[in-house]
Amino acid sequence: MTKQTFLHDCHVKLGAKMVDFAGWHMPVQYTSIIEEHKTVRESIGLFDVSHMGEVIYKGKDAKAFLNKMVPQDIEKLTTGKAVYCQLPNKSGGLIDDLIVYCLEENKYLIVHNAARVDEDINWMSLNVGDMDVEIINESHNYSMIAVQGPKACDYMKSLGIEDLPKFFSIKEDKLFGINLWISRTGYTGEDGVELIMKNKYAVAIWENLLSHAGDFTVKPIGLGARDTLRLEACLPLYGNDLDENTTPIEAGLSWSIPKDKSVDYNGKSIIENQIKNGVPKKLIGLKMSDKNIARHGYDVFYNNEKIGVVTSGSVSPSRGDNIALAYIKNLDNLAVGSTIQISIRDKLHDAEIIKRPFVQKRNKN
Amino acid sequence: MNDNSLCTKTHEYLLELENGKYEVGITDYAIEQLGDIVFIELPEVGTEFVKNEVFATIESVKAASEIYMPISGKISEINEEVVNSPELLNDEAYENKWLIKMDSSADQIEFADLMDYSDYKEEIE
Fold it and tell me: Which of A50, A156, A233, A255 has the highest CB neighbour number within 10 Å of its CB?
């Protein structure tokens, strides 16, 4: 059975094209992916991300437990702060990537990918042992709306949220008289917030956000533009760019991993070894030299030898060219500026390795 | 779309221009389903295809779609305008949405599974 978010009828009423995504019936676009993409880069977009999983981890060992599940340092995560984490298996491959929020001492909210939440909870539970941790899946009780774009924070302020949380922070607040969590996070490379509320308030928040725009341009954005936005910002998509056979180091996520974490965590020896001695495959960004588009699963060639595979690829509405992420063998002579080839419908097309992210992120604060 | 078009289950249309000469494109419904069209790859003039063979690729933002020959034929002209500006297919005011023109002497049996435009419209509802 395909699940529906509490905003499903709002999307249908807005004329959205609905598709099945990760077991959910979700809007892929309302008008045009390219138009919606540009709205988020220029003004404000609203996303229904209620399909994401919200899970609470609490108990007197919650901090110690999460600290042995992720490569990031949960000890250092103070109340009200959030951190981007990965969930490695024992070989360092990724079961999921996550945002971990510290709500209070030994109480955490984790936002899981929709398609992975059951798998993640299963893995977490297997690792609890005799530690005092309660895992409560709240996914079916909460809805989530992302408000993203260069004007998103000004818009929130105009609605009475005076004291916005800082980048990667979360706080409780009231919006349109409704209690919710407001988090300064997102998946677009733009500044903005994510709002987490009880299901019964989701429609009121959504409709008020659209109707109170005033001089702001506020439009609903589908999953299609969410994908092109996150790709330009080089934010990995689980299932495309990350999987159980890929470590965070191979995925180019070493920036997110502290080098001095003393506590043991799943996959630590493999991850640390890769940090020190290098990786067999690495994630690269590329742009096509012609108008062809590299898609997920297309092979990458160099000197007529297959060296890798494309994991995400699309047009870049902001740049006007065609971009992609790919994993290739970690060859010394390939770096930014090198030309490689992508096999598209049995023909090789040139592509250049370029710097990531593809567009400058504007969400630092 | 012209009411005399014949349509395939895979959303191509075939329109006879004069005896043995046809144009082929994708239906308005297909265009709407694809969303923003960003790339069109068409075959070279003179290439011959058999019925149901892939002769073109249309890429939307989300995905690449293969376009199939409704009947066998030999390409006589391609629509350079839409190759150069694929977004024209999404433009409701733009009328020349055909992809290729071709010469065909296909046997009647190749037409058996094509639908009249009116039947096609019922099919997609």
Answer: A50
- Partner A contacted by B63 (CB < 8 A): yes
Hey, what amino acid is at B47? T
**pLDDT tens digits for range A183-232:** 999 999 999 999 999 999 999 999 999 999 999 999 999 999 999 999 99
Task: Please name the member of A32, A224, A291 whose beta carbon is closest to the beta carbon of B39.
Answer: A291
Scanning every residue of chain A, which has its alpha carbon at the shortest distance from the alpha carbon of B85?
A291
The amino acid sitting at A223 is: L
3-state secondary structure of B34: helix
Q: Tell me what ipTM this predicted complex has.
A: 0.88
Q: Whole-angstrom Cα distance, residue A11 to residue A143?
A: 14
List CB contacts (< 8 A) between A32 and chain B: 35-36, 90
pTM attached to this predicted model: 0.95
Tokens of B47: 């290439």
SS (HEC) of A148-162: ECCCHHHHHHHCCCC
Cα–Cα dist A237/A287, whole Å: 18
Look at B61 and A292 and tell me if their CB atoms are within 8 Å.
no
Cβ-based contacts of A231 with chain B (< 8 Å): none
